[in-house]
Amino acid sequence: MAIAAEHVGKRFGHVEALRDASLRAERGQIVALFGDNGAGKSTFLRILQGIHQPDAGRLVVDDQPVSMTSVRDAQALGVDTVHQDLSLAPDLSVVDNMFVGHEVLRRGPLGRMGVLDRREMTERTEAALRELSINLPSLTVPISDLSGGQRQAVAVARAVMWSSTAVLMDEPTAALGARQSELVCDLMRTVAGRGLGVVVVSHDLPRILAIADRVVILFRGRTALDVPAADLTVPDVVATMVGYGQEESAA
Ligand SMILES: Nc1ncnc2c1ncn2[C@@H]1O[C@H](COP(=O)(O)OP(=O)(O)OP(=O)(O)O)[C@@H](O)[C@H]1O
């Protein structure tokens, strides 16, 4: 199993953002995390990223119980994130963006660390993009010259390059048109096909339901449903998101 959260609870003062949230992503699986506004999706994703620490429950990465107190902890366990805003630097090239926060150093002539090895960076970028069948017009243009779909692809490739266990995605199709959304969905399947677990938070129910293996629906901070995606239709998802049939169990 790549990543799991079991019976997680999280409070912010008087707000109980999560009260019994669980999910589990196997390697090679896409798990869709759905829920209405305020259901706790972002909080849950931030816990899996190491940004927030749960008050209750436990996290498991690569079959080992873990405690993560920072994003760096999550990254050290092979868990990386594609943020909704992509966290790309618009003025930097594709290659530079792939290494933001992960600069590759080599020993300089005097044995000092601190020189970026550009050739290695370029080669690793090319390999990462090739493995995901991502074609870009150039690796040296600033990110701002790329289309929204291409930028999303770079952000996904960066996360995959630094992940060995799981990739978390926050609304990967929210800013994209139909065709680019389809390409990003294909890319997500490719990422899972490389043996990573994928957890995706989205409001794009039809598209994500079509590519997910499993669906977890949060309702008021609780996992209300955790089933194979093939067992659900979009109206089923909506009904659970809005709490149809959940009021008694959530009370
Ligand atoms: N840092 C915080 N401080 C206080 N309350 C918070 C904080 N983060 C989230 N909450 C509250 O926790 C609850 C769950 O919020 P969260 O953002 O996780 O939901 P969501 O499902 O991601 O919603 P949306 O789809 O609107 O982004 C909400 O009531 C929210 O106001």
From TrEMBL:
Gene Ontology MF term list: ATP binding; ATP hydrolysis activity
Keyword Nucleotide-binding: yes
Keyword ATP-binding: yes
Domain ABC transporter residues, every copy: 3-245
Keyword tags: ATP-binding, Nucleotide-binding
Top-level division of the source organism's lineage: Bacteria
Pfam families, A to Z: ABC_tran
CDD domains recorded: ABC_Carb_Monos_I
Entry protein name: Sugar ABC transporter ATP-binding protein
Species per Swiss-Prot/TrEMBL record: Streptomyces mangrovisoli
Lineage: Bacteria, Bacillati, Actinomycetota, Actinomycetes, Kitasatosporales
